[in-house]
């Protein structure tokens, strides 16, 4: 009890810093998970074809389910000229930045 009375302000500051750090990290994670890019569907495009090109290492079925949820689609049928939101899987650093950091030219 005397420890809390003696170091109460320091404990309060540490607690507040920790709470604000956790809140900031959770906010950043939420904002990056909701990022997307918009594309216009061309003739012959399918969700499966888009998944093969845009899903990176994610399971194509899961990626298609995410696209359907993001665009409120009831079926996998997409039409030419439609605008679709696709989940953005961009890395934090662009590829050119990673090459510069690695020291290659």
Summarize the entry for a quick read:
It is built from four helices and two strands. The chain has 105 residues and is mainly α.
Structure description:
It is a single chain. With 105 residues, the chain is mainly α. 56% of the residues lie in helices and 10% in strands. It contains four helices and two strands; from the N terminus they run H-E-H-H-E-H. The chain has helices at residues 2-33, 47-54, 60-70, 95-102; strands at 36-40, 83-87. A two-stranded antiparallel sheet has the order 1-2. The radius of gyration is 22 Å and the shape is rod-shaped. Residues 91-95 have low confidence and may be disordered.
Core attributes:
105 residues, mainly alpha, 4 helices, 2 strands, 10% strand, rod-shaped
List the helices and strands and how they pair.
Layout lengths: L1 H32 L2 E5 L6 H8 L5 H11 L12 E5 L7 H8 L3
Antiparallel strand pairs: 1-2
Helix pairs in contact: 2-3
């Amino acid at each position: 009890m005397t420890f809390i009375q003696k170091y109460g302000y320091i404990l309060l500051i540490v607690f507040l810093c920790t709470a604000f750090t956790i809140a900031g990290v959770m906010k950043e994670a939420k904002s990056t998970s909701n990022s997307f890019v918009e594309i216009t569907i061309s003739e012959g495009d399918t969700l499966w074809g888009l998944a093969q090109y845009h899903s990176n290492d994610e399971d194509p079925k899961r990626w298609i389910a995410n696209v359907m949820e993001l665009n409120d689609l009831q079926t996998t049928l997409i039409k030419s000229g439609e605008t679709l939101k696709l989940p953005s899987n961009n890395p934090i650093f662009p590829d050119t930045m990673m090459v510069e950091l690695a020291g290659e030219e």
